[in-house]
Amino acid sequence: MPLRLRIKIWHRRRRYAIRQNPHLDRTYRAAVGVVGGLMMLGGLAMIPLPIPGPGWVMLFLGLAVLSTEFAWAHRVTSFLRRQLRRANAWRARTTERVVRAWRARFGRPRDSVAVEGVDERRDQRDPPRDESDRGRDESQYEQPGDDPRDDVPAARRADE
What is the reported pTM? Predict the structure, then answer.
């Protein structure tokens, strides 16, 4: 039997035993309410942080904890899951339409593969003149005008 199923069965047995005692059941529900409420409050406090993830994660985890014991939280969680599924379906449909429109207008997009260590713009703008210039950088030259690849005289460059 998988571990997850064994844990689920163990938890349900314990929860059933707790439900048999009304005092213990109220205490358990209060503890779940406090823990879930604190998690939700912590999540609400973290939402304005510049990092977008932790606040929302804590908020939804707190709601999940509350939904284990409270029907209203379970309804909210179910509603959010339905909305998330709808949003994902809408995103997939919209992406499909955009891709179809792009292909109809411009043809099939070319796959661009980035090669590490190659800056295509620099290679096109400033090609080496011969093999002796490859691998050199501007720091190797004493004066600004000493760069053999430089087409602009140093005096004219200083005026700009």
Answer: 0.55
